[in-house]
Amino acid sequence: MAGINSPQNRENPFKQNWFVTATWLIVICYVVYSFQAMGLSWERFSDGLGHASNLLGRMVPPNFSRWSLLLSGLIESLEIAIISSIFGIFLSLFLGLFAARNLMPTWVSTPVRMLIALCRTFHPVIIAILFVKSVGFGALAGILTLIVASVGFIAKLFAEAIEEISLKQVEAIRATGAGFTSIILFSVMPQVFSRFIGFSTYQLDSNLRNSTMVGIVGAGGLGGTLFSAFQRFDYDFVAAILIVIIALIMFGEFLSNIVRRIFR
Q: Domain locations in the chain?
């Protein structure tokens, strides 16, 4: 016991933790350097708070006098979100199935997974700019943008959910001589259907938010109205648009809760 507890056999905690300590020092130095390189300072932050208070003062009270413009933008954003969600979820079902490595051979699942990753690579605003340049301004660019964004996110979740299923049910259905479609319908879908509903409602909620964002670059919806109001320094109308966007998101949350209760 004395030999075990001797000073020669005691471990030096500094020698054990030198890598962690060095890592934290590097991180701290990099953060300090980043603050200096970007010109961040407390004075700039405090000045920004003063400008923000002036901006909020000009936004109150909100101006709803142009309610027809608000209503048309709201309806268009809602249409963009719903249409893109329907097509995006429908495509994601098939792509997620073909991307599942436990059901598909490698030569099928690998290219599909690469396609899904490609759809997820770029931010929706960047995709919206590309579609605006391709098909022009308006709702079509927004719909195509959110379809791509939906596929990039929800198809990956679909594939991962399918890969986690129990293959015993698949083998049982296959032993009856059932075809591929019957196997999917009666052994795969019952195991993942509730998760599919959860993913789909989340994507609808996400598309409701993004439908207002992509409009900033001309892809339809309330985003274009919001951007125009900012350019005109029409801040009371900006406040009205923001309130409408908040109401739209709350409606999406309400709709998602209803769908979850129906399919629970």
A: 67-262
Residue 10 has φ and ψ, to the nearest 5°, of -75, 135
> For the chain, first and last CA: distance in Å?
62
Nearest to 148 by CA among 190, 120, 188: 120
74 close to 226: Cβ distance less than 8 angstroms = no
Domain at 67-262: CATH code: 1.10.3720.10
Query: Cα–Cα distances in Å, from 64 out to 105, 193, 251, 262?
Result: 57, 43, 19, 36
Please compute Rg for the chain using Cα positions: 26
In 10 A of CB 44, how many CB atoms? 10
Instruction: Render pLDDT for 166-187 as a digit per residue (tens, 0 to 9).
Output: 777 777 777 777 777 777 777 7
